What we know:
Layout: H1 3-19, E1 35-43, E2 48-55, E3 65-66, E4 79-80, E5 86-90, E6 97-99, E7 112-117, E8 121-126, E9 142-147, E10 150-155
Antiparallel strand pairs: 1-2, 2-8, 3-4, 5-6, 5-9, 7-8, 9-10
Amino acid sequence: MNIRTRLAVVMGALVLAAGTGGSLTAAVASPSVLGITGVSFSGTLAAPTVTVTGTGFGKAPTNGLAVSALTNCQGQNGLDFPGGKLWLVDANSGEPWTAGSRVGTNGNCVGVNIVSWSAKQVVFTFGNGYGTNGWNFNDNDPIVVSLRTSPFVTFIPGGF
């Protein structure tokens, strides 16, 4: 898939995310404004860790909802965060999937596990739904990450 097609898929994911009730704003690199300045991936494709850097992240959300409460996600772990507090979209060319978000009682069974949260850095992993049903990263997948409605678009680096 060429870069123009990938960006169209990512922009579609942003439109999809906006349609779920969250408002989207551009990331701004200013110490007094909420903004994501970078997203990095560590670990392996099978067990990734996502590190988000920026400013104004505030305190970690405390109202996470267990993904196991979703009708089709019994036995899965991790959390979804209502109101767009923390979510990720993998807008891959096969089956796009989300982590950390849901619409009503529908959603992918990929929960988010917060490892650490500070005003300038958030680190998270995924629940055990990651890696099932095609809900996993692949090299060069377009990714949208959002913290408190500040989206950031990036790609999965090859062979991270």
